[in-house]
Amino acid sequence: MLSLDTSPQLTQERQLLLDLFCQLAYKEGDFVLSSGQRSSYYINGKQVTLHPQGGLAIAQLLLSLLPQDTQAVAGLTLGADPIVSAVSVVSAIANRPIPALIIRKEAKGHGTRAYIEGPNLPAGAKVVVLEDVVTTGQSAMKAVERLREAGYQVDQVLALVDRQQGGAEFYQSVGLAFQAVFTIQDIQQRYQQRQQDSKTL
Is 138 annotated for ligand binding? Predict the structure, then answer.
């Protein structure tokens, strides 16, 4: 199991990211998720992944978690698009260039009719799948399957938030390593703390 880098800069980035999730992405109420489940809260990860400071913090944190032999990062469109792009750009700045791949939900209707967009990699290239919010784990699994069909090696999924609703157990059951930057408990605790702090001001 990988652990988050505890350098002062990354600790600061993690706290910034946690606050952005609480401020911009986390909402309480009555919601129906893409999985069909009902929930008393909702996380719109794109509010953070498309935010300039959020994107930078995400890229730095996820880059620190990627194994040294990672040859590409990939994810299912649309949620993972800004994440894989940010990680790829920041990897180049860090002098550790890692290409990004985007997995379509349906094959392209023209040209190559491909499911995977991005640079061509050698057969057997090691690819890590990135995801914003994991609930059941099925979304990122589609990306894993497409990548494996294309001849790439995929052994790991990294997420920003684990809703702790079976995703981690599902990945374990299919032999995929899984890690999330935050659990839903991390976000809810910080959200409540921020609510209390605002009342005492």
Answer: yes
146 half-sphere exposure, CB direction, 13 A CA radius? 23
Q: Is 5 annotated as a binding residue?
A: no
Domains and CATH numbers, the chain: 8-200 (3.40.50.2020)
Q: Which pTM does this prediction carry?
A: 0.92
pLDDT (tens digit per residue) in 104-131: 988 766 555 589 999 999 999 999 999 9
Q: Is 30 annotated as a binding residue?
A: no
Query: Can you tell me the distance from the alpha carbon of 98 to that of 131, in angstroms, rounded to the nearest whole number?
Result: 16
User: Which residue, chain included where needed, has tokens 């090691």?
Assistant: 126
Q: Is 132 annotated as a binding residue?
A: yes
Tell me the average pLDDT across 176-190.
Answer: 97
Q: Does 110 appear as a known binding residue?
A: yes
Three-class secondary structure of residue 69 per DSSP: coil
> Annotated binding residue at 137?
yes
Q: Is 156 known to sit in a ligand binding site?
A: no
What is residue 1's predicted lDDT score, i.e. its pLDDT? 34
Mean pLDDT (whole number) for 29-55: 92
